[in-house]
């Protein structure tokens, strides 16, 4: 049984910005694999995959080459989590400045 169950935020018009951005990436499979790992292991995911940022906001990180792909998500109910935002950086600190 999965520890986490991720879904994505959808706007009222049905657009899903996370999925649209994900579809444009060459590393889509790597991001989806990281999501699956976190769904399976939850808080016991391997180090470097998830981090609690602030006030119920969490970050799922995917490293690829010199870039880090970051997905923001929050707990919705039971084991359901919603991915709301996606950001690509090539430095560790640029995300926190934009947050």
UniProtKB/TrEMBL annotation:
Domain of life: Bacteria
Protein name (record): Phage-related protein
């Amino acid at each position: 049984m999965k520890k986490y169950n991720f879904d994505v935020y959808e706007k009222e018009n049905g657009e899903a910005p996370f999925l649209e951005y994900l579809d444009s990436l060459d590393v889509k499979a790597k991001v989806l694999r990281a999501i699956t790992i976190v769904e399976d292991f939850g808080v016991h995911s391997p180090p470097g995959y998830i981090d609690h940022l602030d006030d119920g906001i969490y970050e799922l990180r995917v490293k690829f080459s010199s870039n880090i792909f970051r997905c923001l998500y929050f707990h919705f109910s039971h084991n359901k989590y919603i991915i709301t935002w996606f950001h690509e950086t090539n430095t560790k600190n640029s995300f926190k400045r934009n947050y």
